[in-house]
Amino acid sequence: MTKTAPSRAPATGEQVLQAYEALLERTGRMLECARDQDWNGLIDEESQYVLEVERLARGETSIQLNEFQRHRKAEVLERLLERERGVRGCLESRRQELDQLIGLSRRRRDLNRSYGAQEAAVVDGRPRFDKERP
Predict the structure, then answer these.
(1) Residues 48, 2 contacting (CB under 8 angstroms)
(2) Which of 17, 68, 79, 93 has the most crowded Cβ, counting Cβ within 10 A?
(3) How much is the pLDDT for 130?
(4) Per the domain annotation, does 95 fall within a domain?
(5) Is 128 among the domain residues?
(6) 36: domain range?
C-alpha cells in the first residue's frame, strides 16, 4: 500500500537522490493504481506524492549536487515525467468515460421528461385485435 516518506528534508546530495528515487517508486504505484482504475488508491498515492515533492523542494535548495548526482537526478526526473504522462493518460480516458456516462444520463433524463408522462397514458391495444374475439 502507501509507504510514508521520511518526515525531514534531505540534508545531503545522496539523500536528495534517495528522495527522488522514493518519488519514482511512488509514481510507479500511482501508475499501477491508474491502470487498475483504483481511483481511491491513486488519490492516496498522489496526496503523499505532493507532500514528498514539497518536502524535497524545501530541502533541496541548499544542497549542491555533483555531476554524477545531477545526471542521476535528470534520469530519475525523466522517468518520473514518463510515469506522470501515463497516469494523465489513464485519467483522460476515465474522464472521457465519465463524460459519456453523464451525456447518456442527461439524454435519458431528457427523454424521460419528454415522454415519461405519456407512458402512463399508453393503452395496450392487443386485446382489440385478438383473432379469437368476434
Answers:
(1) yes
(2) 17
(3) 67
(4) yes
(5) no
(6) 13-110
Sign for the pseudo-dihedral over CA of 69, 75, 76, 81: positive
State phi, psi for 123 to the nearest 5 degrees: -110, 135
- Cβ count near 91 (within 10 Å): 13
Q: Residue 69: helix, strand or coil by DSSP?
A: helix
Query: How confident is the model over 28-46, as pLDDT tens digits?
Result: 999 999 999 999 999 999 9
The 10 Å Cβ neighbour count of residue 78 is 10
- pLDDT category at 117 given cuts 50, 70, 90 is low
CATH number at residue 41: 1.20.58.380
User: What's the CA dihedral at 18, 24, 29, 35 to 10 degrees?
Assistant: 180
Answer yes or no: are the C-beta atoms of 80 and 24 closer than 8 Å: yes
Measured in whole angstroms, the distance separating CA 18 from the mean position of its chain's CA atoms is 25
Q: Where are the alpha helices (DSSP H) in the chain?
A: 13-35, 39-60, 67-119
How many separate domains does the chain show?
Answer: 1
Here the cell at position 10 is 534531505
pTM: predicted TM-score of the whole model, two decimal places = 0.70
